[in-house]
Design a protein that fits this description.
Blueprint (H helix, E strand, L loop, with lengths): L18 E4 L1 H7 L7 H13 L4 E2 L2 E2 L12 H8 L10 E2 L3 H9 L4 E7 L2 H8 L3 H17 L3 E7 L12 H13 L4 E5 L7 H13 L7 E4 L7 H10 L4 E4 L19 H10 L8 H15 L6 H6 L5
Parallel strand pairs: 1-2, 1-9, 3-4, 4-5, 5-6, 6-7, 7-8, 8-9
The structure holds magnesium ion.
Magnesium ion (MG) binds next to loops.
Length: 314
């Protein structure tokens, strides 16, 4: 027989409940080679919500030239109607033009995407870190005036493929400036998946010294080196309760030849279920959603839990 749910043994070192910030529809699909039609994306988001995911990042209003996978952002939101709006349906906006499009689409929440390093800021945003923060300032200001919830991502928080190690003080300084703009939540991203446990603790402490408390922090770990879940547990034990993950582990690693990138939501839900931590997610319903999306993409899920529970998908 196979076990389709873990034996529950509550772990008193973890919080009783976490909020999963589901990134599969945006971060996941943005980094897949296959371009998925708008109606499939809308159906994916509906299925994720039906599986119990409360916070779902839906799409990105980045220039379609740079991210053709999400060129249909407005169409996806039109298809979703009210299901794609509100404070729990953020969209990524790279700049004021993206914000204009997001406001036109009637969104209730946005996310900006900063960098901890100069090299990635230059490559991803064509700006220095300082220039990128100047660019984000009016985006956040106008979003807040419009009553939107605002999240700030920072990428390359634990290492940069061009610069190597990234000092935690440097990440904390960028984080402080982004949060001073008026963002509600900070997501610290391990874009290349190289973080390890002590590093996570040190960064969370450095952010605490900048008065960015764990209640405003989400963690975004990648599984490229198999560390995403252990790093997540470290952050939860430090008091973080918001975790980014991607259904089925969609997305791969954007800066490495690896099928494994984003922490898979299934792997996170399995670990939380066993530890008695509430997520609100129905694992079977999520598994069938990921199997369906894997079929759309024509590739098996890299998630260990998906593979263990859906052998036929391989
Ligand atoms: Mg990611």
């Amino acid at each position: 027989m196979s076990m389709r749910t873990p034996q529950v043994e509550p772990d008193p070192t973890l919080p009783p409940e976490i909020t999963i910030y589901e990134v599969g529809a945006r971060d996941g699909l943005q980094n897949e080679k296959t371009v998925v039609p708008a109606d499939v994306k809308a159906e994916f988001i509906r299925r994720l919500a039906a599986a119990g995911l409360v916070t779902i990042e839906t799409t990105s209003f980045v220039n379609p030239q740079w991210v053709p996978q999400l060129a249909d952002a407005a169409e996806v939101l039109t298809l979703l109607g009210d299901e794609g709006r509100g404070p729990r349906r953020p969209v990524l906006v790279p700049n004021e033009r993206g914000l204009d499009r997001a406001l036109e689409a009637g969104v209730g929440a946005v996310a900006i995407f900063g960098s901890a390093t100069e090299t990635f800021a230059r490559k991803n945003l064509n700006r220095t870190v300082d220039e990128s923060i100047d660019m984000f300032a009016p985006v956040v200001e106008r979003a807040r005036e419009a009553g939107l919830w605002v999240r700030a991502y920072i990428s390359m928080c634990f290492g940069d493929p061009w610069e190597g190690p990234v000092p935690v003080e440097q990440v904390a300084r960028v984080a402080e400036r982004l949060m001073e703009l008026g963002c509600d939540q900070l997501s610290i991203g391990d874009t290349i998946g190289v973080a390890t446990s002590g590093h996570v603790t040190r960064l969370l402490e450095a952010l605490g010294h900048k008065q960015i408390g764990v209640e405003r922090i989400g963690v975004h770990f990648h599984d490229t080196y198999g560390q995403a879940l252990s790093n997540t547990l470290v952050a939860l034990r430090h008091g973080v309760t918001v975790v980014d993950s991607s259904a089925g582990g969609l997305g791969g690693c954007p800066y490495a030849e690896s099928a494994t990138g984003n922490l898979a939501t299934e792997d996170l839900v399995w670990a939380m279920t066993g530890a008695g931590v509430r997520t609100g997610v129905d694992l079977e319903s999520l598994l069938s959603t990921s199997a369906w999306m894997a079929a759309q993409l024509g590739r098996p899920s890299p998630s260990a839990v998906v593979r263990a529970l859906t052998p036929a998908a391989d």
